[in-house]
Fold:
Amino acid sequence: MMDDVGREGPGTGIGPGAESRRREEGTRRRLRAFQDIRGKEVKRGEFWDAVVITAADGGQEHAFLQQIASKLERKELPLGVRYHVFADPAGPKIGNGGSTLHALLRLEELYGDQLDGFSVLLIHAGGYSQRLPSASALGKIFMALPLGEPVYQVLELKLAMYIDFPAHMKPGVLVTCADDIELYSVPEAQAVCFDRPGFTALAHPSPLSIGTTHGVFALEPSSGEEGQEELEYRLCHRFLHKPSMEAMREAGAVCQSVRGQALSSDTESADFVYTDSVYYFDRPTARRLLAILEETGGIGCEIDAYGDFLQALGPGATEEYTRNTANVSQDLDQLPAVRQKIFASLRGTPLNVAALNNSVFYHLGTAQEYLYHLTADRTLREQLGLIPNPGRVSHSPPEGGELVPCIMESLLGPGCLVSSGSVVEYSRLGARTTVGANSIVSGCCLREDTAVPPDTFLLSLSIPAGFVTVILGTADDLKLTVPSLSEIDRLRLLGIGLGEVVKRLGLEVSEGLFSGAGKARLSLWNARIFPGPRARAEDSAAASLEMSEVLRGTSTPQFTGDVQRLSMEEMLQHKDVQSTLKFRQQLSEEIASGKHLQRK
Structure:
């Protein structure tokens, strides 16, 4: 299993099989409870008073609002809830910490003292998901999952998994991210409560190797054995952000598994640490955070809602972290001063921990994690009740083995084959189309007899001028940047250096090859290499697949010098969200009515 695809606890003494069953039972109960209120008016106190989703900019805010409005119209969300999308202010990036402060300010402007009685869910969803491009256009929080009817997206799953929280929460804010899932169980007579002053964070027992890339809680000493109960409330002495194994041991953060065995095959001992995921802060603490925004006069650098807030908490917190810029690549002048203001404001605030000893944390932030969890992770499939083929399409997945294809809200013609390990979502595939292994096809219309090669990412978007399609390798790195044109061969498309790609496509290496911000930071994200718009979605996808054949040397270039080329960045700037949602709705209606079966 790749790093951070799942973090599982050390056990509670009830046995691993029983633990898994209890997580499944708890998860299914929450899903049923959410389904019962989906599309219905909720009463005060039984659900969130407000659900806030953050966005990177005004364009993403508009796209998110359109999708929420569409969901409410189709009654896919609980009704009578205040749903908001808040974009980060224009200017430099402010990180999810800055987004948190800005969201608090917007809520204060809208509701004022009413917030003294509100429970708020704040979901960080800003950014353009360069590590999972299928979520770039509409956002990670709106990624489809093979679950539920109508098919769930991550937003619905988040709301379902946290459905018990508002009833056991004092007024305040619960902070979470859009690309993770937490599954857990607690004793029937107990609930996770957020009723203590200051911050309360969920904690998951994890191998030390996972702790090096996450936040780690160094807890105050316990009077008994750690990890005995499914739910334990503890005080955190100090929070560590992406610490080394040595730092974890020095801080007293390392615990011993009661089961006396390793957490996973790559661990050498039964040692574990408690790592972070979701946290809550109460209303008085929200006011203190707002005061930081007032004191700084606005945030002009990236701050982290986890590392920069939580490291200021607990009796063992020190100011040392405010000067540590080891993991920071920009804003080095402003960041220490902002961190010092955060530390001064939050110092002495308690950090309570709800240790979920029978829990698993999943991350869906990259293409490989996404493919693994939806096609290979049998444990997640069983505990969530994922269905590899929830779209009621005419397709029979291969038998045998744990690796499966995942097909969501898509129509497949006769004779189609989607290989195990691949995902097809919101697409229409013509007869006898094949999709190779380890591929993602999203929002596409493919002609009959189309062949999508293995390890391929294919995404079609609607823009005002027509349809455009991006083709990448599922392992391509869209975030990698190089400083000059002489280094563009470090950027690789479908395994081929970008300089060679440009040559094979008959283009020229120049500054004009890159759009917008790409002129300063060159990347695949900004490279103008993808075919321009076509009037028909099928023609757009075919043009991009033809481009991949040219790059792989299996086809002769048919392009002319005046062919328009776009970058992924430009496509997203012009995306037509309403047309995309209309296409998805047409697919769903056609699947539900069975019209695709009548034509065969």
Summary: The CA atoms of residues 393 and 524 lie 34 Å apart. The chain has a mean pLDDT of 90.
